[in-house]
């Protein structure tokens, strides 16, 4: 099946007074219709910047160094103010992490949903209000007619995120990008939002790019998975296979530090060390400093992303080698 | 009464406290630090004259009683008579206030009309001509003394080009130079604030959301950003109005011989007419409080998060 | 947007001579201070020396002007250049004294209000509110009317008008600094108030108070000039730029230089101070510096 969204060798940097920080260093990804792709990485790994760039939201000090973003084969503009092109907000939309900041504090929630309907579905004001009520019902907000007249600060965190999702679905997009949609929420609310998204994805046949630092969420949500480290994809493949047998030591480390119910491992351990300084990347593999397998070659040469099994890639010289006991 | 009514009542009471505070300040300065009789009478006045004035001003009573009497007179707008003009102070104020309000109204309207497009364009296209103009105007507004700006405008437009009258009250032509003098620096400051507020707001997460929704740039700016920039900009405009009322008009009216409250205040001080100065300070304090009250209400109407 | 510069330690602002504003500002201020100190050496004439024979001479580049009086002379034949040079002193004295008095008093009040809190804090802040709600010259005029105009009165009036902004700033910083975990910790483990103030709070105060002081200096120079212009500030025979503008006002149509040069002196002084203030803000705020850098990159590329 041909892909909806294709990212080709995308590289993004941030200009600072101390030099250009390479936040994303040549990432290629694709999302096919109806599929759910999880993008997982630590904070600062470049995953959110990637999502923002896809949505045409990259601004200085961030800028694209090379690469392309395509929608159904057509290249999208990714420089500067690139919205309003019939794709962004219409065929793909985004749910942000912090709904309180992401919603306009001075407009009612209803107005913010209705303006999407007026813009992209050509609905009249009254028709838009009616549709917005349905959308709130769809995302499980009780008493929708009343809530539409409310302001974002009057909503609870979970309700706000539901409203945000309703807003993102208003234009009836084919792809939904969820940028850490549950990070700012309480754990119980997190689960509710995850279930809501999964349910909506199935019911509406949505494709989804799900960005998170939480492998547990990916396990619940995604068909495929890509792991990003220091601005690069280090492993990708079908979620179940990657979970069962990770190829990259970093993925193994992440899995080890994620609580699971299906194995009776005794201890959770973290990946020691911290991500490399992007301004001063090592010559070889970016993960070498934290990798128990790293040898002279890893420190001298940067491994490319190679096929390691059917439908699976990893950027490691020794894929599938157990890195931790 | 609804929530908003209580909010309004509370703000009015707070305003009354401010007016009371200013009145107390005025009272302290005039009665405790200075001796009104010594200031208002010439040195060669006889002791009998002094006693008479003291009794007339109520200075022979205790300080507490004096303050209460002072308050009572102000609340019933009984401002006494002007020593200098030999007529009721109320009359003078009623006569002069419209001139000041006209000047402040015209100049602030002009300032806002100039500042809004300038600040907006400056924010959207940093580094271009409107941005430079805004920076220049605001820097000039912060650095050029008003009285000198006024005189330079007179020199240019009245003396050299002879397009406009140099000073005095009169028709629209007379209003131009004084209001431009008041407006230009204010416009620079408002435009600069609008510029920096808009730049901040344009980088706010909710603007990112609006762009991601695929809204046209024009709609993002006019609907989403302007409403959020409105509160600080309105506050700034209100601040400019109050400063114009309580300070700048004094200077500008003096430069242009504009017959408003500010000019009369300076003349009253030069003639040692303390009672008239007190009355003017009181009236201006009420005006300032009223402007602030309006601002609070506007703020509440725009931003639902303001606590009631 | 999550700026991916994780792990990069913030570095201190480097002194760069490219900071033109600061150079201009410091240059103008250095000139001002030097002129004020060396006024008797620099001025070609006694600023108060009257010479009826040499009334209203134009500046050197106009017909009838000469190098004897480069900026011309006023209606009493006094040398405008010498008066501008001596006027520096008044502006500087007024600015420095008011900022010192209002700054110290306001800072102390703000420290006490922030530390003691409770009823004292509420009372002081209410008073500050009243005072701030009533801005401008009118109050200064009233004080001067009571005290008789002079340089000292101007300093008193402007100090009374100026301490509240310092008090409010300092009080707010004290409150927010005390809420910081490390200061709370210091208080919990029993550091005495003076130690907390000196070790933890004063360092946080220095930058904003200094920036405010510089801005207030500009405000005071303008206010002194305005009061003197209105005839309620510096009184003749003393010299002040505002006073000279007022004196030259009646000759505006035929001797523009009387008004122009003292006015320019005020403008350049305040301009220099404002440049310095805007530079201080960048030095003290790394975010602001980073923002300006991004903007300059954007401008270069567009």
What does this structure look like?
The complex is a heterotrimer of chains A (325), B (308) and C (302). Chain A has 325 residues and is of the alpha/beta class. Chain A has helices spanning 47-54, 99-102, 109-120, 125-138, 144-147, 157-169, 187-204, 215-221, 239-244, 249-256, 296-300; strands at residues 5-16, 19-31, 36-40, 62-71, 74-76, 92-95, 175-179, 207-212, 224-229, 232-238, 306-309, 312-314. Chain A has an eight-stranded mixed beta sheet, sandwiched between helices. Chain B is mainly alpha-helical. Chain B contains twelve helices and two strands, in the order H-H-H-H-E-E-H-H-H-H-H-H-H-H. In chain B, a hairpin with a 4-residue loop joins strand 1 (81-82) and strand 2 (87-88). In chain B, helix 5 packs antiparallel against helix 6 and helix 7 (146-160) packs across helix 8 (172-202). Chain C has a single domain (20-296), classed as MetI-like (MetI-like fold). The two termini of chain C are 22 Å apart. Mean pLDDT of chain C is 81; it is low at 1-18. Chains in contact: A-B, A-C, B-C. At the B-C interface, helix 1, helix 6, helix 7, helix 10 and helix 11 of B face helix 4, helix 5, helix 8, helix 9 and helix 10 of C.
List its salient traits:
heterotrimer; A: 325 residues; alpha/beta; eight-stranded mixed β-sheet; four-stranded antiparallel β-sheet; 11 helices; globular; C: 302 residues; mainly alpha; MetI-like fold; 70% helix; disordered N terminus
Low-confidence stretches of chain B: none
The best one-word shape of chain B is: flat
What is the CATH architecture annotation of the domain at 89-302 in chain B?
A: Orthogonal Bundle
Query: Which percent bin holds the helix content of chain B?
Result: over 70%
Give the averaged pLDDT of chain B, no decimals.
Answer: 84
Radius of gyration of chain C, taken over Cα atoms and rounded to an integer in Å: 24 Å
Strands across the major sheet of chain B, in which order?
A: 1-2
Number of helices of chain C: 11
DSSP, total strands of chain C: 0
| Domain module count of chain C | 1
What's the helix-strand series of chain C? HHHHHHHHHHH
Task: Give the SSE string of chain B.
Answer: HHHHEEHHHHHHHH
Q: What is the CATH top level name of the domain at 89-302 in chain B?
A: Mainly Alpha
The fraction of residues assigned to DSSP E strands of chain C is under 5%
Strand content of chain B: under 5%
């Amino acid at each position: 099946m041909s892909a909806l969204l294709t990212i080709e060798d995308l590289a993004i940097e941030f200009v600072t007074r101390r030099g250009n920080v390479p936040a994303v260093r040549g990432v290629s990804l694709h999302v096919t219709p109806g599929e759910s792709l999880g993008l997982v990485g630590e904070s600062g790994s470049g995953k959110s910047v990637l999502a923002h760039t896809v949505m045409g939201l990259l601004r200085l000090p961030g800028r694209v160094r090379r690469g392309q973003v395509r929608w159904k084969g057509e290249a999208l503009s990714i420089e500067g103010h690139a919205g309003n092109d019939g794709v962004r907000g219409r065929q793909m939309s985004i749910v942000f992490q912090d709904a309180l900041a992401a919603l306009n504090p001075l407009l009612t929630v209803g107005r913010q949903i209705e303006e999407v309907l007026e813009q992209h579905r050509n609905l009249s004001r009254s028709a838009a209000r009616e549709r917005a009520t349905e959308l709130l019902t769809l995302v499980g907000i009780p008493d929708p007619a009343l809530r539409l007249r409310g302001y974002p600060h009057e909503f609870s965190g979970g309700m706000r995120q539901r409203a945000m999702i309703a807003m993102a679905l208003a234009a009836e997009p084919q792809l939904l990008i969820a940028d850490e949609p549950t990070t700012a929420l309480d754990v119980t609310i997190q689960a509710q939002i995850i279930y809501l998204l999964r349910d909506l994805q199935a019911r509406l046949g949505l494709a989804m790019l799900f960005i998170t630092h939480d492998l547990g969420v990916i396990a619940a949500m995604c068909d495929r998975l890509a792991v990003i480290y220091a601005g690069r994809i280090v492993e990708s493949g079908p979620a179940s296979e990657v979970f069962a047998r990770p190829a990259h030591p970093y993925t193994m480390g992440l899995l080890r530090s994620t609580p699971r119910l299906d194995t009776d491992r005794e201890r959770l351990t973290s990946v020691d060390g911290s991500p490399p300084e992007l301004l001063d990347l090592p010559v070889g593999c970016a993960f070498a400093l934290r990798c128990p397998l790293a040898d002279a070659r890893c420190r001298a040469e940067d491994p490319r992303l190679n096929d390691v099994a059917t439908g699976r890639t990893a950027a490691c010289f020794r894929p599938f080698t157990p890195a931790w006991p | 009464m609804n929530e908003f009514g209580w909010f309004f009542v509370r703000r009015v009471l707070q305003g009354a406290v401010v007016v009371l505070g200013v009145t107390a300040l005025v009272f302290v300065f005039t009665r405790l630090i200075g001796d009104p009789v010594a200031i208002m009478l010439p040195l060669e006045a006889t002791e009998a004259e002094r006693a008479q004035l003291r009794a007339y001003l109520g200075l022979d009573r205790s300080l507490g009683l004096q303050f209460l009497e002072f308050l009572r007179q102000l609340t019933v707008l009984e401002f006494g008579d002007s020593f200098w003009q030999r007529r009721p102070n109320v009359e003078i104020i009623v006569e002069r206030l419209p001139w000041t309000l006209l000047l402040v109204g015209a100049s602030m309207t002009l300032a806002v009309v100039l500042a809004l497009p300038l600040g907006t364009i400056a924010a959207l296209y940093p580094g271009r001509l409107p941005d430079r103009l805004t920076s220049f105007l605001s820097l000039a507004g912060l650095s050029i003394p008003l009285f000198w700006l006024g005189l330079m405008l007179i020199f240019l437009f009245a003396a050299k080009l002879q397009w406009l009258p140099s000073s005095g009250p009169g028709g629209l032509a007379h209003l131009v130079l004084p209001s431009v003098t008041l407006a230009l620096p204010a416009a620079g400051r408002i435009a600069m604030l609008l510029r920096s507020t808009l730049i901040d707001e344009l980088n706010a997460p909710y603007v990112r959301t609006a762009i991601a929704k695929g809204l046209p740039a024009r709609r993002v700016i006019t609907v989403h950003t302007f409403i959020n920039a409105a509160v600080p900009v309105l506050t700034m405009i209100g601040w400019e109005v109050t400063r114009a009322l309580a300070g700048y008009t004094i200077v500008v009216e003096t430069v242009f011989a504009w017959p408003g409250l500010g000019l009369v205040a300076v003349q009253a001080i030069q003639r040692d007419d303390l009672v008239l100065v007190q009355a003017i300070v009181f009236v201006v304090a009420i005006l300032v409080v009223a402007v602030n009250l309006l601002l609070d209400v506007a703020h509440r109407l725009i931003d639902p998060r303001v606590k009631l | 947007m999550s700026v991916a510069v994780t792990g990069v330690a913030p570095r201190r602002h480097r002194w760069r001579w490219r900071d033109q504003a600061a150079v201009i500002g410091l240059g103008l201020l250095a000139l001002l201070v030097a002129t004020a100190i060396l006024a008797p050496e620099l001025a070609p004439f006694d600023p108060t020396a009257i010479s009826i024979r040499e009334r209203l001479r134009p500046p050197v580049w106009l017909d009838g002007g000469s190098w004897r009086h480069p900026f011309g002379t006023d209606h009493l034949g006094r040398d405008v250049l010498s008066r501008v040079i001596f006027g520096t002193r008044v502006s500087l004295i007024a600015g420095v004294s008011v900022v010192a008095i209002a700054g110290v008093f306001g800072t102390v009040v703000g420290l006490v209000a922030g530390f003691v809190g409770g009823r004292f804090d509420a009372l002081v802040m209410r008073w500050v509110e009243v005072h701030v709600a009533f801005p401008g010259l009118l109050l200064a005029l009233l004080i001067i009317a009571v005290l008789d105009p002079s340089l000292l009165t101007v300093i008193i009036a402007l100090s009374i008008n100026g301490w509240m902004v310092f008090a409010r700033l300092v009080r707010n910083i004290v409150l927010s600094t005390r809420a910081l975990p490390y200061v709370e910790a210091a208080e919990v483990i029993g550091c005495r108030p003076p130690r907390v103030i000196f070790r933890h709070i004063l360092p946080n105060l220095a930058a904003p108070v200094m920036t405010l002081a510089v801005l207030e200096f500009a405000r005071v120079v303008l206010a002194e000039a305005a009061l003197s212009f209105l005839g309620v500030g510096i009184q003749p025979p003393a010299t002040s730029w505002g006073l000279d503008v007022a004196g030259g006002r009646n000759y505006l149509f035929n001797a523009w230089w009387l008004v122009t040069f003292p006015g320019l002196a005020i403008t350049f002084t305040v301009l220099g101070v404002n440049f310095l203030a805007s530079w201080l803000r960048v030095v003290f705020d790394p975010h602001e510096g980073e923002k300006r850098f991004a903007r300059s990159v954007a401008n270069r590329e567009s």
